[in-house]
Amino acid sequence: MTIAAQPGGSYIDADLSADLAAAALDMARMFHKGATLWVISPQWEPHAHHVAVEFVHPVIMGKRALPSVALVDPDPVAQARVASRPGDLLIAVASANEPAVIDAMRRAQAWGVLTLWIGSGPRPQAGAANHILWIDSDDPMVPATGTFVLLYHLLWELTHVCFEHPGLMKPDADECTDEVCVTCSDEGRLGEVIVEPVDATSSALVRTAAGEEWVDVTMLGDVAPNDLVLVHAGTAITRLDDEHSREERTPDIGQELRR
Amino acid sequence: MTESENTGFLYPFIESEETDATSLLDDLAASARGKAAESARLQNESLDEYRDALDTAGSEMAERFRRGGRLYTFGNGGSSTDAATLASLFSRPARGRPVAAWSLAADNAVVTALGNDVGFDLIFKRQIIAHARERDIAIGLSTSGNSEDLMTAFTEAKQRGLLTIGFSGHDGGRMATADDIDFCFTVHSQSIHRIQESHAMLGYRLWSVAQERMARPLNGAHTI
Q1: What value of ipTM does the predicted structure carry?
Q2: Considering only CB atoms, which chain B residues are within 8 Å of A49?
Q3: A28: distance to nearest CA of chain B, Å?
Q4: Cα B12 → chain centroid
Q5: Is A183 part of a structural domain of the chain?
Q6: Would you give the DSSP letter of residue A170?
Q7: Are residues A134 and A237 in the same domain?
Q8: Looking at domain B43-215, what is its CATH homologous superfamily?
Q9: CB distance B86–A166 less than 8 Å?
Q10: Which tens digits make up the pLDDT trace of A70-128?
């Protein structure tokens, strides 16, 4: 007998529906401020195209066309890096172990881009994206049964509902009262090197969520374009080398942040 | 639950002074659950309605794959992406046996060349003429069932002896009554989103049946 797939709708419980609602409100607010939505799905390219066409050319007459582009080059990180600007949105449709998506989601913080991650199977680490919209199923066929399609359809539908509430398109008043708010303070911000220093005593041009700035990197020694660094008061204080060292060094970075 | 009941809250008075998002978030979450329930209901209803036809169509697909047949999928817009997902399911399944399948909307050079030179209505038909052999399979997806570029492709495919399968929506449109389509699976809904979600599930069932049939020894086929 053939194995029946579980309907996608059966996964949308109280938690996931609340996650979708919060994600949709964030997306509507970002679009309201002029965001472009970038979409990556290295394993399932058609999903990236479906999300993009959904927002660009809505199936319901009269709904706003919103800027949305599928990034399907062999290196989606390089493509998203050059395409995105602070205040943009990035959706990934991918499993939690997809290396390019892990990297893009991490770097999006330095790009000033709000991230959403749609997938199934084992979950990404908590905090790996701003919104994690997850199907907790180990069925490898989930991506082909319409379940992801349902998730991004709902995201589109709810986002457009939010536009009917113009008073709520501004961020919540209490949004920036966190002890360490990376966009409002200079406690330690993730940056990505754009231009390396010309000599040992020069600054590097670094991109953070706040824009581009020349940063003192003498504490780190050699830095190269695309290196991820932590910027504090105009100085790069830590380098995040790669995925493995990031995991090892995360506690240290936490210490730096709390000084 | 009907679509209009789920979405009734969408069009209240527009309150520009609204500042507390709590009630909106509650409404959005409730709406998501309502739409998800409708999606699941429609998928199950469609699978039930077409259980026998999906079995037959999936078996015929398996028989053609055994003879070296290839699958071509096609659609417009979101349905073109669902057609591509379906093609990938056959050609790169997470489990089971891969078979030759591709989406006729996938190659921008081919689609724009045909659209520019011979007209958009022929973008799929001309590819069928170029690629198709008698043992192949054509699957087209359209939520209206009326897309001209699909209809011309189905006619060409049928003339060339292909197995033709259509996924439609609403009342089925032209696809529901076309002689050129061997199996037409119409998803009875007014929502393009819900129709597409059911198309994916029906396509998945076709793949499951075809996989199961291909896994059996040929001489056991008559016992199906």
Answers
A1: 0.90
A2: 80-81, 84
A3: 12
A4: 35
A5: no
A6: S
A7: no
A8: Glucose-6-phosphate isomerase like protein; domain 1 (3.40.50.10490)
A9: no
A10: 999 999 999 999 999 999 999 999 999 999 999 999 999 999 999 999 999 999 999 99
